[in-house]
């Protein structure tokens, strides 16, 4: 694993200490959402719709309520009816009315698996029996799943009040198109007229799931005084609190959410499914309620990402300068509006310096679970299309695919189609590193091919709170409010240790609950190391300021005479040798006598998150008689800003690549003619297994983000953006056949090869 | 309905519990014995997060009835370390950063231990195929395989 | 709530009697890797589970001059570790070795794989190609039948109430005989076979095939023995023409469906490919033997 550009000026940042929560995790002691048990706890389960689209005529729960052992039953009638209201509490826009209806169907069921009722009982077996006793009468309706079928006139309508936004004049009749978005620069038609080669292609993708190994799980406990506790694995305890408060009509302060360890999220746990139900059941029964989804429920009823159709048109001169670029993106939103089509549009051409570009997107509802964020939401789909088309353009022009990208690369000063002007970005550096990497020159054998693709993600900042406390013995505690999905806790400790100047082993990072730490926006958008890290650094710097003041008191010198170096108060250069260094532990010992406990808090809304860029190289071997694709070698080169803990940055890159490869080759939702999911399990929803992948080389290019004290850039999402096109381009290089439809499973590859040779 | 009374050995200790016929060994470990280290990822034997070792064989505890544990010798993740002394696979997972969310980690560690008990010198390919029954969604398996190979080298005394 | 009972007989006769006398549905529990999944999903709702693993001899591999005897409840992982069995029947062993993960193989058995009667069961084509038989115990006593007589359709067997498979037998091998099994799956592991092909051959000294059996899996309601494919091999060496005839015969025999794992076209095309490749391996192995 190569790192480039690290200056070696840090003592802790850039090293690879063992993570502080590591021993717990390797001994099985770490407590995830399903691992908590409370006295008197009930088991909660959900009754789900067998229909993809139906009116709920009636629900009769009396027999279930009467079953011995059943302590509570809830339906939509037990939740307040919420008016339409946009919120920005989770990742991406959310309408509270839609969220409420997604958690518990009201009037209509909109996908197979949609929750219609929930029970809490004294055992799992009784809860299951109770579900069977709930009588729901449905009036099945025609359903629609495919995005273009949902857009077509006469398609079954999911919401009779859905008028397309973003179209002027607004349509007079409802449809399944929730929104149209559009971004443009220059004059794309003129751009195409100026081109000597124009390629126009159509790409399709299937819905895929984040497929975290831990199913959703929570324990909720409502007290008689209205104080509620929730223990759950989520990507944001404050998000859970806010959503539950809204959906149950409770004051936010009455709910305390403690984050359990989380077994993977990737965006799929940035909203709630079970928590409001568990809370309602707990209120009704007066007892704690635990709810854990089965794997089947996770697939049938939690948000995968969109399936999509993307049409791309790119025009260029013979020497490879892109003169015009256009894309139309149609994304499935699932049962309620809110696909990531907008970020998809914004990211599609973000790597390129284009004068004439037009991107249009459609957010389309259909009878599937409501889409949830999945790692760089929207961008992998858009880049599969654009990066495949660029590869074809390169081949058509006889240009090296990296050279084509270099010729059109976004640099500092480039304006992106959605507005901002790039500053301090590292895209070109990734292209150069790719060109020079040994992988790019390695020889290939028969039926083997190499593909190149690039990717981008915005990364966000946002609100975070962090506290740093100095203990009586000079060790420190860092408290923040972001669930640790990938090792961020270690990075918080490292950044605090760097600022305080003490060994990282003397800093203990913890993730606080909603009542113990100030507000933090959720873990997502690749924001935690950047934004929460920034808050940690700020708090640690304030602590250092306080330590210097205390040292001045202890040493009886003026504060200007003191500097902080290597974890101790030392004489400032103006008067070296004036006193011996006074270490932090010594100052801590005297804290009570010098003014009291030493701690600081920082609450910020971090700005200046730096975007991330990557270029990936992928070698495949294709079996021409079976269509099987083997990934031989993969190199992912990414601008990571500054790698606080290089191992975890590499881990994010490798994990994102693996998910992208799965998306490319075998993952897809398969529906039957009734809109029912045929593969709601890990047997037939095929994620990559250990034998499917080679080692994944993560090359970290460091172009520091000047707006973060350590130069941090978000890293977690960029890696999933290039792989689908990298694999598709490699398959083309190996076989001469270009696949435009995902996944590129053996039957599809073989069919394409067979068509091409007959 | 009357439950089955099961006497078994878990991590070297004699253990007794009551269970119904349809409860799996995973259910019994987690719900009756509070050994929550083994995880439920799928309940269909496809993810390996529930991996345990029964009479020396690596199995999915979700694919075994609790009542079948009678008289057997069961090893779970909780028995891998000896007090504070971590097993080499645990140590190398930490050093190599071979875990991110940590949910699949107990199953992977038990599977890796079973591999190295049987084959102290696996090749990378052998390790990958042995661990194919343990899904990980976070790491892409790269650092996991490296950790297993490093642990193997340590166990061989290299 | 239906009560699920459990019984663990310690003799074959006791197992037969419990199964025959059961009120409602009784299911044999061997390795449990199919049974527990179906139980959990509600696909089956038996009244009684009969665990046969406590019967002495039901787990184990015995080699004698007549061939091999494999106890019905022997986990497949044991087959992959048995040097004698691997040497004599590499195809049967590699087929059993493809059933699921190491964890699954630690429990899954040939009897379960056969009696679950999935059209895609991996061990079945190889057993049929090997002319394996199974010993069935029942209220009427013991009978020995070819493996291909057991599965009658997806999820259905010819076993009567009270009957269970207790042993598999593999015959002694003539010299210059070998078998092979290949399957196609989308990933490298952990998938149900989209197509499976087993080939068992005997060659004479010059390399010409004197005896062959070709069996395809996952392309019909049960595994199918393809006499026409075997006929393409017998009397020939494995040259390009023979391979082409074999490929065509395999494809003609397919009666596959289109489902979430594969299409009719794909399965048919790949059946020919795998038959060729499995034959190549079987011939090579046979040629190396005395």
Q: What's a concise summary of this model?
A:
The complex is a heterotrimer of chains A (758), B (158) and C (290). With 158 residues, chain B is of the alpha+beta class.
Please tell me about this protein's structure.
The complex is a heterotrimer of chains A (758), B (158) and C (290). By secondary structure, chain A is an alpha+beta fold. Chain A contains 21 helices and 29 strands. Helices cover 28% and strands 24% of the residues of chain A. The longest helix of chain A is centred in the last third of the chain and has 28 residues, at 528-555. Chain A is globular and about 85 Å long. Chain B is an alpha+beta fold. Chain B folds into two domains: 4-79, Ubiquitin-like (UB roll); 88-155, Orthogonal Bundle (DNA polymerase, domain 1). Chain B has five helices and five strands. In chain C, strands 4-5-10-6-7 form a five-stranded antiparallel sheet. A four-stranded antiparallel sheet of chain C has the order 11-12-13-14, with helices on both faces. A three-stranded parallel sheet of chain C has the order 1-3-2, with helices on one face. Classes of the chains: A alpha+beta (758), B alpha+beta (158), C alpha+beta (290). The interface between B and C is medium-sized, with 31 and 28 residues.
């Amino acid at each position: 694993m190569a790192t480039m550009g690290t200056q070696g000026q840090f003592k802790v940042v850039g090293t690879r200490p063992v993570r502080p929560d590591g021993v717990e995790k390797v001994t099985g002691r770490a407590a995830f959402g399903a691992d908590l048990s409370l006295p008197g706890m009930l088991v909660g389960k959900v009754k789900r719709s067998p229909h993809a689209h139906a009116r709920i005529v009636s629900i009769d729960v009396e027999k279930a309520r009467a079953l011995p052992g059943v302590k509570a039953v809830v339906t939509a009638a037990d939740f307040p009816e919420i008016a339409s209201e946009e919120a920005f509490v989770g990742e991406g826009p959310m309408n509270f009315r839609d969220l409420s209806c997604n958690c518990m169907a009201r009037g209509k069921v909109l996908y197979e698996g949609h929750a219609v009722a929930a029970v809490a009982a004294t055992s799992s077996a009784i809860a299951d029996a109770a579900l069977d006793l709930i009588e729901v009468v449905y009036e099945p309706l025609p359903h629609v799943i495919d995005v273009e079928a949902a857009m077509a006139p006469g398609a079954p309508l999911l919401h009779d009040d859905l008028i397309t936004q973003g179209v002027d004049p607004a349509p007079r009749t409802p449809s399944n198109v929730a929104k149209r978005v559009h971004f443009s620069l220059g004059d794309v038609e003129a751009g195409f007229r100026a081109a000597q080669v124009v390629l126009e292609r159509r790409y399709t993708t299937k819905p895929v799931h984040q497929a975290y190994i831990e199913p959703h799980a929570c324990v909720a406990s409502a007290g008689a005084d209205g104080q509620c506790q929730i223990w759950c694995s989520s990507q944001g305890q404050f998000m859970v609190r806010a959503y539950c408060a809204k959906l149950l009509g409770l004051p936010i302060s009455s709910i305390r959410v403690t984050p359990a360890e989380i077994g993977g999220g990737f965006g799929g746990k940035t909203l709630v499914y079970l928590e409001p139900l568990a809370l309602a059941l707990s209120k009704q029964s007066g007892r704690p309620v635990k709810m854990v989804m089965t794997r089947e429920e996770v697939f049938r009823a939690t948000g995968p990402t969109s399936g999509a159709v993307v049409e791309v048109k790119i025009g260029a001169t013979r020497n490879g300068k892109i003169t015009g670029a256009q894309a139309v993106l149609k994304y499935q939103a699932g049962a309620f509006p809110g696909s990531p089509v907008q970020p998809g549009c914004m990211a599609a051409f973000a790597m390129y310096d284009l004068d004439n570009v037009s991107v249009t997107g459609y957010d389309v509802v259909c009878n599937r679970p409501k889409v949830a964020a999945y790692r760089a939401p929207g961008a992998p789909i858009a880049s599969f299309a654009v990066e495949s088309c660029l590869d074809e353009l390169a081949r058509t022009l006889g240009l090296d695919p990296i050279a084509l990208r270099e010729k059109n690369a976004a640099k500092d000063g480039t304006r992106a189609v959605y507005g901002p002007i790039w500053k301090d970005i590292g895209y070109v550096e990734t292209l150069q590193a790719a060109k020079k990497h040994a992988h790019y020159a390695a020889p290939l054998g028969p039926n083997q091919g190499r593909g190149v693709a690039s990717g981008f993600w915005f990364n966000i900042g946002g609100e975070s709170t962090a506290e740093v406390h100095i203990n009586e013995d000079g060790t420190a505690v860092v408290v923040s409010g972001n669930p640790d999905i990938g090792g961020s806790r270690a990075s918080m400790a490292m950044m605090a240790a760097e600022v305080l100047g003490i060994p990282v082993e003397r800093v203990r990072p913890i993730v606080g609950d909603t009542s113990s730490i100030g507000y933090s926006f959720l873990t997502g958008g690749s924001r935690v190391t950047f934004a929460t890290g920034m808050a940690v650094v700020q708090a640690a710097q304030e602590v250092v300021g306080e330590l210097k003041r205390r040292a001045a008191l202890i040493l009886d010198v003026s504060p200007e005479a003191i500097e902080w170096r290597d974890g101790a108060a030392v004489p400032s250069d103006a008067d070296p040798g004036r006193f011996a260094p006074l270490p932090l532990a010594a100052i801590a010992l005297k804290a009570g006598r010098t003014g009291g406990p030493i701690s600081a808090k920082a609450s910020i809304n971090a700005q200046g998150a730096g975007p991330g860029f990557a270029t990936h190289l992928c070698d495949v071997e294709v079996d021409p008689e079976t269509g099987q694709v083997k990934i031989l070698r993969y190199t992912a080169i990414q601008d990571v800003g500054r790698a606080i803990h290089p191992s975890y940055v590499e881990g994010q890159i490798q994990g994102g690549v693996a998910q992208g490869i799965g998306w490319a080759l075998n993952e897809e939702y398969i529906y039957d003619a009734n809109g029912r999911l045929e593969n709601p399990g890990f047997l037939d929803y095929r994620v990559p297994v250990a034998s499917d992948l080679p080692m994944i080389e993560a090359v970290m290019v460091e172009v520091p983000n000047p707006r973060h004290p350590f130069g941090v850039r978000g890293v977690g999402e960029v890696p999933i953006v290039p792989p689908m096109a990298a694999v598709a381009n490699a398959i083309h290089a190996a076989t001469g056949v270009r696949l435009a439809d995902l996944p590129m499973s053996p039957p599809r590859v073989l069919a394409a090869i067979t068509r091409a040779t007959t | 309905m009357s439950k089955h009374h099961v006497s078994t050995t878990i991590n070297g200790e004699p253990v007794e519990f009551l269970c119904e016929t349809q409860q799996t060994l995973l259910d019994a470990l987690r719900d009756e014995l509070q050994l929550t280290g083994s995880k439920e990822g799928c309940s269909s034997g496809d993810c390996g997060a529930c991996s345990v070792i029964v009479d020396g064989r690596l199995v999915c505890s979700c694919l075994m009835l609790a009542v079948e544990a009678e008289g057997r010798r069961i090893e779970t993740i909780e028995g891998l370390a000896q007090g504070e002394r971590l097993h080499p696979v645990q140590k190398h997972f930490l050093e190599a950063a071979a875990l991110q969310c940590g949910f699949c980690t107990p199953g992977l560690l038990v599977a890796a231990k079973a591999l190295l008990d049987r084959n102290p010198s696996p090749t990378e390919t052998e390790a990958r195929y042995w661990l194919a029954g343990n899904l990980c969604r976070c790491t892409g398996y790269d650092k996991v395989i490296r950790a297993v190979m490093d642990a193997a080298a340590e166990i061989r005394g290299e | 709530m239906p009560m699920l009972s459990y019984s663990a007989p310690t003799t074959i006769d006791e197992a037969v009697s419990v199964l025959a006398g059961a009120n409602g549905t009784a299911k044999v529990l061997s390795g449990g890797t199919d049974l527990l999944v179906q139980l959990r999903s509600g696909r089956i709702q038996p009244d009684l589970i009969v665990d046969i693993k406590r019967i002495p001899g039901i787990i184990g591999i015995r080699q004698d001059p007549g061939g091999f005897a494999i106890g019905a409840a022997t986990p497949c992982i044991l087959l992959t570790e048995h040097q004698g069995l691997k040497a004599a029947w590499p195809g049967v062993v590699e087929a059993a070795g493809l059933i699921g993960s190491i964890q699954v193989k630690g429990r899954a058995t040939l009897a379960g794989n056969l009696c679950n009667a999935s059209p895609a069961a991996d061990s079945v084509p190889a057993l049929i190609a090997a002319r394996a038989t199974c010993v069935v115990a029942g209220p009427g006593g013991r009978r020995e039948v070819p493996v291909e007589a057991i599965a009658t359709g997806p999820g259905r067997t010819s076993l009567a109430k009270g009957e269970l498979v207790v042993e598999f037998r593999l015959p002694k091998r003539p010299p210059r005989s070998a078998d092979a099994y290949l399957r196609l799956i989308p990933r490298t592991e952990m998938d149900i076979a989209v197509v499976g092909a087993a080939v068992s051959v005997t060659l004479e000294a010059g390399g010409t095939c004197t005896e062959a059996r070709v069996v395809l899996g996952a392309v019909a309601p049960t595994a199918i023995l393809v006499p026409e494919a075997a006929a393409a091999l017998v009397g020939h060496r494995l040259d390009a023409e023979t391979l082409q005839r074999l490929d065509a015969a395999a494809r003609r025999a397919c009666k596959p469906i289109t489902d979430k794992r594969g299409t009719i076209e794909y399965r048919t095309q790949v059946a020919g490919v795998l038959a060729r490749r499995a034959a190549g391996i079987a011939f090579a192995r046979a040629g190396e033997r005395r």
